[in-house]
UniProtKB/TrEMBL annotation:
Record keywords, A-Z: Activator, ATP-binding, DNA-binding, Nucleotide-binding, Phosphoprotein, Transcription, Transcription regulation
Name of this protein: DNA-binding response regulator
Record-listed 4-aspartylphosphate modification sites: 59
PANTHER family: TRANSCRIPTIONAL REGULATORY PROTEIN (PTHR32071)
Listed CDD domains: AAA
PROSITE patterns linked: RESPONSE_REGULATORY (PS50110), SIGMA54_INTERACT_1 (PS00675), SIGMA54_INTERACT_2 (PS00676), SIGMA54_INTERACT_3 (PS00688), SIGMA54_INTERACT_4 (PS50045)
Domain of life the protein comes from: Bacteria
One example of a Gene Ontology biological process annotation: regulation of DNA-templated transcription
Source organism per UniProt: Anaeromyxobacter diazotrophicus
Sigma-54 factor interaction domain segment(s): 153-382
Length: 492
C-alpha cells in the first residue's frame, strides 16, 4: 500500500467556538487522524508556515481574519492542502466564493450527523493522497528526463527569443527586474529562469502573490512580525524577505499592494533592511527582487495609486512578456509540450494533435494566454478517446461548437433527469447553471460594470472576474474600476 495512504492524515481545524472545536478534535482523533485544533486564524497562518497539513477544516465567521481570508492564506502558503469550509450562516454567495477560492467542500452547521464531517475529511484526504502521488511521479519523470527548472518557458518566436536573450543578459546582475505581461503569460517562469541562471541559484527562491492577501497578512508575510504586534501574534515570525536572504524573492501582482506596504517595500529596496511589524529594529537582508504585474504601472502612478519612487526602484530592468496572440507561431510547440506533460501525468495514450485541432488552436485569440492553452490541452487529454486530439476534444470557445460538452443540469422537478446523474455530477451542473444565470443577471443589472457587479455580489473583483470568464470570452485585461465592459455575448 502507498505510504501516503498508510500514514496518519494531518488535519488542521480552526474554529473560534471552543465546544465545537473540542468536539471536532475528539471526533477526528478517534478516526486516526493527527489533529491540530486552533481557535485563532492568525495562529493558524503561523502554524501553516512551519508545518505540513493534508486537510484544513475552517470556520467562515471568525474574529481578526475571516474564514475566506484564511482560505486564501492557506492556498497561498500550501496550495496542495484540501480545505473544507464550515458555516452556520450559509449563503449561495459565500459558498460560491469559497469554491472559487479553492475550497474542496462546504459544510453547514449545526451538523445533522458529525459523521458527515468525518466522511468529508476522509474524501479530502484521499484527494490529497492522489495529489501527492502524482507530484512524486512528476518529480521522478522530470529527474529521469533531466528537464530544466524553467521547462515551461517554451517558444521559438522572435518575441520569445528576445525574452530569453534578456534573461541571459541580466541573470547575473543583482538589479531589480520588473516583468510585465498579461495574466497567464508565464511571468513566474521568467522569474524562476532568472534565478536559476544567477549566482544565487543555490539559495532560496521565494514567490508571493501580493494581490491574494489582505494588507495585514501581506505585511506579515513579507516582513514578518514580533510577538504582540497585533491580535493573535503569539510569537515572533520571520517574513519572506528573511526566508529569501541570499536568494531571490518574486513579488507577483506588485501593482495591487496598498500604499502603506509600498512605503515599507521602498525602504527594503533603498536600504536593504527589513523591519518586522511591531518592531523598531532593522534587519539587514541580501535579496534580489523580481516583481511582476499585468497592470499599467505608469498609469497607476499618474492616478496617484502607485508611488513613483517605488516604480523607478522596481523598473531598473524591464522584461515585457508578449501575450500568446502576438506569438501564435509558438502555439503548436506549446500545445505539444503540454500534451506530453498531461499524457504522462494522466497516464493517457494520446500521441498527437490532429491538423484540424492545430489549425483551431492557431486561429484562437487566447485571452487567457498560455495558462488557457495549458488548461485546454489538459481538458482535451482527459476527454480524448483515441491517440490523436481532434476538434471535438477542444473547448467550445476554441472549436466553435455551440453545444456544451457537459450537459446542463435538469430543470427543477425533473426527477428522472436528476436521478440519471451522480451526486457529484448533479452538484457540479447545478453550480454551473447557477453561476451562468447569476453573473449574467448581475452584469445586466450593473450595466456591465465588473467592479459594481463584484461589489453587489460581495466578492473580490479578481475572483468575480474568474467566474465571469467561464461564461464570457470578452473579459480580458483590467479596465478601470468604473470602466464599462463590452456587452455580454448571446448565450449558447
Amino acid at each position: 500500500m502507498d505510504n501516503n495512504i498508510e500514514k496518519a492524515v494531518r488535519v488542521l481545524v480552526v474554529d473560534d467556538e471552543p465546544v465545537l472545536l473540542k468536539a471536532l478534535e475528539a471526533l477526528l482523533t478517534k478516526k486516526g487522524h493527527q489533529v491540530t485544533a486552533l481557535d485563532s486564524p492568525i495562529t493558524a497562518t503561523q502554524r501553516l508556515a512551519a508545518e505540513d497539513f493534508d486537510v484544513a477544516l475552517l470556520d467562515v465567521k471568525m474574529p481578526d481574519l475571516s474564514g475566506l481570508e484564511l482560505l486564501t492564506a492557506v492556498k497561498h502558503r500550501r496550495p496542495e492542502v484540501e480545505v473544507i469550509m464550515m458555516t452556520g450562516h450559509a449563503t449561495v454567495e459565500t459558498a460560491l466564493a469559497a469554491v472559487k477560492a479553492g475550497a474542496y467542500d462546504y459544510l453547514t452547521k449545526p451538523f445533522d450527523d458529525v459523521e458527515l464531517v468525518a466522511r468529508a475529511v476522509a474524501k479530502a484526504a484521499e484527494r490529497k493522497a492522489l495529489f501527492d502521488r502524482n507530484r512524486a511521479l512528476e518529480t521522478a519523470l522530470r529527474e529521469k528526463e533531466g528537464a530544466p527548472p524553467a521547462d515551461g518557458l517554451v517558444g521559438n518566436s522572435g518575441a520569445m527569443r528576445d525574452v530569453t536573450r534578456m534573461i541571459d543578459a541580466v541573470a547575473y546582475s543583482a538589479a531589480t527586474v520588473l516583468v510585465q505581461g498579461e495574466s497567464g503569460t508565464g511571468k513566474e517562469l521568467v522569474a524562476r529562469a532568472l534565478h536559476a541562471k544567477s549566482p544565487r541559484r543555490s539559495q532560496p527562491f521565494v514567490a508571493l502573490n501580493c494581490g491574494a492577501l489582505t494588507e495585514t497578512l501581506l505585511e506579515s508575510e513579507l516582513f514578518g512580525h514580533v510577538k504582540g504586534a497585533f491580535t493573535g501574534a503569539q510569537r515572533d515570525q520571520k517574513g519572506l524577505f528573511d526566508a529569501a536572504d541570499g536568494g531571490t524573492i518574486f513579488l507577483d501582482e506588485i501593482g495591487d499592494i496598498p500604499p502603506a506596504t509600498q512605503v515599507r517595500l521602498l525602504r527594503v529596496l533603498q536600504e536593504g533592511e527589513v523591519k518586522r511589524v511591531g518592531s523598531a529594529e532593522s534587519i539587514k537582508v541580501d535579496v534580489r527582487v523580481i516583481a511582476a504585474t499585468h497592470r499599467d504601472l505608469p498609469k497607476l502612478v499618474k492616478a496617484g495609486k502607485f508611488r513613483e519612487d517605488l516604480f523607478y526602484r522596481l523598473n531598473v530592468i524591464a522584461i515585457p512578456l508578449p501575450p500568446l496572440r502576438e506569438r501564435i507561431e509558438d502555439v503548436p510547440l506549446l500545445a505539444h509540450h503540454f500534451l506530453r506533460r498531461y499524457t504522462d501525468r494522466l497516464a493517457k495514450k494520446v500521441k498527437t494533435l490532429s491538423p484540424e485541432a492545430i489549425e483551431l488552436l492557431c486561429g484562437y485569440r487566447w485571452p487567457g494566454n498560455v495558462r488557457e492553452l495549458e488548461n485546454a490541452i489538459e481538458r482535451a487529454v482527459v476527454l480524448c478517446r483515441g491517440e490523436s486530439i481532434t476538434p471535438v476534444d477542444l473547448p467550445p470557445a476554441i472549436s466553435g461548437r455551440t453545444a456544451p460538452l457537459i450537459r446542463e443540469a435538469p430543470a427543477p422537478g425533473d426527477d428522472a433527469g436528476w436521478l440519471s446523474m451522480s451526486y457529484a455530477a448533479a452538484k457540479e451542473q447545478s453550480l454551473r447553471r447557477f453561476e451562468k444565470t447569476y453573473v449574467e443577471a448581475l452584469m445586466r443589472a450593473c450595466d456591465n460594470n465588473i467592479s459594481a457587479a463584484a461589489r453587489k455580489a460581495g466578492m473580490d473583483r479578481s475572483n468575480f472576474k474568474r467566474v465571469l470568464r467561464k461564461y464570457r470570452t470578452d473579459v480580458e485585461g483590467d479596465a478601470g474600476d468604473d470602466a464599462p465592459e463590452a456587452p455580454p455575448r448571446a448565450s449558447a
